[in-house]
Amino acid sequence: MAARRSVVTTVEEAATLIHDGDTIGIGGFVTTNKPCAVIRELAKQRRKDLTIVAAPSSVEVDLLIGLGCVKELITPYMGAEALAPVTPFFSAWAGRRFKVQETDNGTLIAMLKSRIQRVPFLPVQVVGTSICEHNEYVSVIDDPFGGPPLAVARPVKIDVAIIHAMRADKYGNVQHRGAHFLDHLFAMAADKVVVQVERIVSNETIRSTALDTTLPCEFVDAVAEAPHGAHPTASQNFYRLDTEFIKVYVNASRAYLAGEPDFYNKMMQRFVYEPWTHAEYCEAIGMQRLFGLSLEGSDS
User: Fold this and answer.
1) How far apart are CA 105 and CA 21, in angstroms?
2) Domain segments of the chain: what residues?
3) pTM of the model
4) Could you give the residue ranges of the DSSP H alpha helices within the chain?
5) pLDDT tens by residue, 220-269
6) d(C-alpha 87, C-alpha 73), whole Å
7) Would you give the DSSP letter of residue 83?
8) Sheet with strand 150-153: strands edge to edge
9) Measured between alpha carbons, how far is 72 from 63 in angstroms, rounded to an integer?
10) Does the domain formed by 8-99+156-292 have CATH 3.40.1080.10?
């Protein structure tokens, strides 16, 4: 039996697994558990022509759109809820600077599951909706059992999935703290999987809580330790959403789109391009601010 090997890497090295033109899957859900550390590194390394397949998304994908990294987008939602019902660059440029495949959660899940199961398609309940017209992965066919017309979703090929989780051991056994959303489906559907975690712990720690393991090492190609790596989104049961930071991003992006780019450009320089490591990003945000968002040891 071959010896297990460590898959530990850095955020910066993990991002090199993603190349121009790749299709990447992004886990998490809206403003929770988004792999922002790796996404910022992709932006800094100026990846381009990316196809993004994502669970309901927020500023992490909008950042990539604003910096010209995205060619095509497949996600059920793009917004920061009350902070920005629709994110700025998506609202301004969808269908203009990048292509959008309209979807809902059920259709996205069918696209992932058909890839996992290696079947040509799976049925979805979207007949009569615009998804049938505006998603090239969906077709309407005759029901082979004589029923009404049926919508089916074909597989989506994902080159690399990027996921944020609570912890992992050096071999890539991953545990979330709370819901894991669609992360397991992205991992099983992808050719490669990168997981950024709040902490890397011993294999003994993982084995002592083996039933909490949400992704076994067989699915994981790289693990990067990135405390506060989901910032400015929340990390489930670790820290809250940084609402003030997101408000600043939204206002800066809207100003950019209105023809006043200085504030946005300075923000990108300070928080994307200047930090050479994730640790330097945390320093730029300020550790006091990050600690103030913490949920550890709190009942809230």
Assistant:
1) 24
2) 8-99+156-292
3) 0.94
4) 11-15, 36-44, 59-66, 88-93, 105-117, 131-134, 183-189, 203-208, 243-257, 262-268, 278-285, 287-292
5) 999 999 999 999 999 999 999 999 999 999 999 999 999 999 999 999 99
6) 14
7) G
8) 122-124, 150-153, 138-141
9) 14
10) yes
